[in-house]
Amino acid sequence: MLPLILFLASAATIAWVYAGYPLLLTALGRVRPRPRKRRPTRRTVSVLVAAHNEEDVIEDKVANVRATRYPRSLIETVVVSDGSTDGTVHVARGAGTDRVLDLPRVGKITALNEGVSASSGEILVFTDADSYFRPDTLDQLLANFADPEVGGVSANEVSHTGSDSSGVARGEGAYWRYEQWIKRLEDRVGSAVSASGRLYAIRRSLFRPSAVTSGTDDFVISTQVLKAGRRLAFDEHTLVQVDSPEGAGSEFRRKVRVMNRGLRAAFSLGGLLLPWHGGFYSVQVLSHKVLRRTLPFFLFTALAAGVWLAALDPVWWLVLAPQLAFYSLAAAGWAARAREWGRARPLWVAYYFCLVNLAAAAAVLSLIRGVRFERWDPAQRGRKPVEPVDSPVRG
Length: 395
Known about the structure:
The chain is built from 13 helices and 8 strands. It is of the alpha/beta class.
């Protein structure tokens, strides 16, 4: 009886995260949709870039922001160097940045707190140094603030993976397409759970300096909008171009750090995690963030319970065999990650799925051990400029 209970409970949790939750969002989006007002809006904007050793890309980033079609007189660029030891500060100043703050190593959230204090725009736009805008990105982003209910907006990340991309890069691209799909569903019923750090914006009036320095800045800052009772929109028309990872090792370590910080940020929501206080948003956070990060333990329990049940009754091999086949594909994908045939879809899908879940398990265990990632290191994805995208990309 025990193995059956363990298997059914684990399978139900896995099914809820990957199927039940999206289906609930789809149904609610049809029954009680919450459309947003969206029209051209002109507000003063402060574009804040926290940078740590971004000498190779910061000049292109500043030029990219200044090249958008949004009126230049309304844009203030602020680069905050978080203890950079290269030429980031010098290059940023030479690129014509409106304000450059040269701080010691204080962490990204603290750096952004300082950047906001030094800025003046009505709308605060947060973006990474290696994320690139298309010409209409700021116009599209600001259009959402025509709706008084909207307190913040998260952009739609677009990454390019060519035919010669690694399995990790392809997996990351597929993962983000899935994430953006979930965010679109969430937006239709109210708010996205949180913003993506590549590009998001909030009203200055809603910003509060945060002391949660071990959480992810995008979650900590963007959820201030929800705490204030406003709506956090996800705008699929606001596109930001990002590069894809190539190395499994560095991507694994990056995800452990990000997931550890993301869980700390989620738990800092306090009462918003409780359904009787946070309402449906608490269901969203628990489903999208908390259960998703703890899913590897349910996957392991489902596998172990399947082995136990198959030992008791051979008919359970009908359930166990597909699990073993999937993990065998993942192992083959790992073994062939540097080979041409390793780019076959079944291999890299299984491999990346397991890579992400192993990182999630490591992040949860690090959280339990009390590990804190106070500092941040930008993902080293080639550190080269990415050409701005020219056309919308769906899903």
